[in-house]
User: What shape does this take?
Amino acid sequence: MLMRTDPFREFDRLTQQVLGQAGTWSRPNPMPMDAYRSGAEFVVAFDLPGVDPEAIELDVERNVLTVKAERRPIAGDEVEMQVSERPLGVFSRQLFLGDTLDADHIHAAYDAGVLTVRIPIAERAKPRKIAIESEPARKEINA
Assistant: This one.
């Protein structure tokens, strides 16, 4: 099972409860993701358009997967910016991996601005058949 926490999500939820509408203090998520199970693995896809693959770090420590990416400005010093709506800087997300996932065999690929992380399901968590043995008929011992 894949678990995650986002402190701003809780803040948005609380604001929505108090104001009865979406929070006005919320910020757009600069690293939106999709997560789903596909066969014997979990797949997590992060949207990172405009991020150089060299500016992406992926770390696992004690079942916590951390994705860190930096979107740098494209324009140089001589450019006078007219509109700047895309967030720049360092962004990170943390996913807490459940015990049913194999954090030792994670695979990641980056293509067309999408970082795809594949996390296999641990062998011990996969469904398996249990063999049923037939016991020999119990012999009554009557002497």
Q: What stands out?
A: Residues 21-26 have pLDDT under 50 and may be disordered. The radius of gyration is 24 Å.
